């Protein structure tokens, strides 16, 4: 199983949705709260080129945000990406 990293912040409904989707699939993930760690915000910006949260990485692959994650799941592509 690929390592999953979520860059999140408190009170972000899309972050909660992303975590819930992964939990339903039985996927563990590393969560980085960029609101509590400003240095990690710079890391997220460098890796994703985006300012919004969540930013989701499966392995080194940048998935994007929750909508992108949910779209992969609906298309039946998320499980394969997680197993790659």
TrEMBL record:
Entry's family note: Belongs to the glutaredoxin family.
Pfam families: Glutaredoxin
Keyword terms of this UniProt record: Cytoplasm, Disulfide bond, Electron transport, Redox-active center, Transport
Protein name: Glutaredoxin
Taxonomic path: Bacteria, Pseudomonadati, Pseudomonadota, Gammaproteobacteria, Pseudomonadales
Domain of life: Bacteria
InterPro entries: GLR_AS, Glutaredoxin, Glutaredoxin_subgr, Grx-like_ET, GRX_bact, Thioredoxin-like_sf
PANTHER family for this protein: GLUTAREDOXIN, GLUTAREDOXIN-LIKE PROTEIN NRDH
Domain Glutaredoxin, chain residue ranges per copy: 4-63
Function in brief: Has a glutathione-disulfide oxidoreductase activity in the presence of NADPH and glutathione reductase. Reduces low molecular weight disulfides and proteins.
């Amino acid at each position: 199983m690929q390592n999953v990293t979520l860059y999140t912040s408190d009170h972000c409904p899309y972050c909660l949705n992303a975590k819930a989707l992964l939990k339903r699939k039985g996927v563990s993930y590393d969560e980085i709260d960029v609101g509590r760690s400003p240095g990690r915000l710079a890391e997220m910006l460098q890796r994703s080129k985006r300012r919004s949260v969540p930013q989701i990485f499966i392995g080194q692959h940048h998935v994007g945000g929750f909508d992108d994650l949910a779209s992969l799941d609906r298309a039946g592509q998320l499980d394969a990406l997680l197993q790659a």
